[in-house]
Known about the structure:
Oligomer: single chain
Structural class: alpha+beta
Distance between the termini: 8 Å
CATH architecture of the largest domain: 2-Layer Sandwich
Number of strands: 12
Radius of gyration: 20 Å
CATH topology of the largest domain: Ribosomal Protein S5, domain 2
Amino acid sequence: xxxxxxxxxxxxxxxxxxxxxxxxxxxxxxxxxxxxxxxxxxxxxxxxxxxxxxxxxxxxxxxxxxxxxxxxxxxxxxxxxxxxxxxxxxxxxxxxxxxxxxxxxxxxxxxxxxxxxxxxxxxxxxxxxxxxxxxxxxxxxxxxxxxxxxxxxxxxxxxxxxxxxxxxxxxxxxxxxxxxxxxxxxxxxxxxxxxxxxxxxxxxxxxxxxxxxxxxxxxxxxxxxxxxxxxxxxxxxxxxxxxxxxxxxxxxxxxxxxxxxxxxxxxxxxxxxxxxxxxxxxxxxxxxxxxxxxxxxxxxxxxxxxxxxxxxxxxxxxxxxxxx
Length: 324
């Protein structure tokens, strides 16, 4: 993530990206209650704006404000210590206190301007937390190496370490074991239905989907790495997979309905739910076709007299590479 230093160094601004899961397999439930997974994740150009104001302090504290796109206080995101951003701050400061060489910590006031929808499977909260970890490390003179930041991030949540990478990444374990992965640019349209899904509820249904054969991330990665054609989006569309989509369909009949209607939009290569949902992404050959698709989807929603396709947003985005 790019960090901008503004207002004579008193403001650190970060653009925290959303993510889409191009591949997601659940291997099984662990003894600690989490699930072992394999996933291929790509950050996309849909961002929350994170503004971090700081001052040095011997007794550090964090305060939060959360705003929606209209600039009003957000009712969907808590502005208290239950927010993952506050937990990231606490975890980083707790780790830093272990090193006597660093005796100054930071008060921080964070303003979160949300554009990434919540309860969507787009990783907005995890990305925001990762952004704050990166800011705190920058303020500390990059005191911790990336390996240590990954360790801290992994304690916060399964998706948080993935956002420490600048581009696409592979996640294993419960998602905290991360390695960078090179992925060609993709254009996508992201749709967030009005219905939101809770990750915990989707995972509870996972065991009911295990009768179908497991998919191999290794085979998917090998196919991508050895592809030599010039139609990568169309090629990748045949490799997309998300085990959680099957589980979500047991909770919500909108999964099949949305996949069907989005697949009918001209030039659509593939449609898949991301993460635990309820957002979907559709792949397109290029920026022009993705923008045209977004217009078509908005028109469909506008003329939906039966209100079957209510949405929180439609977004055109491209995947982010390690070069930005």
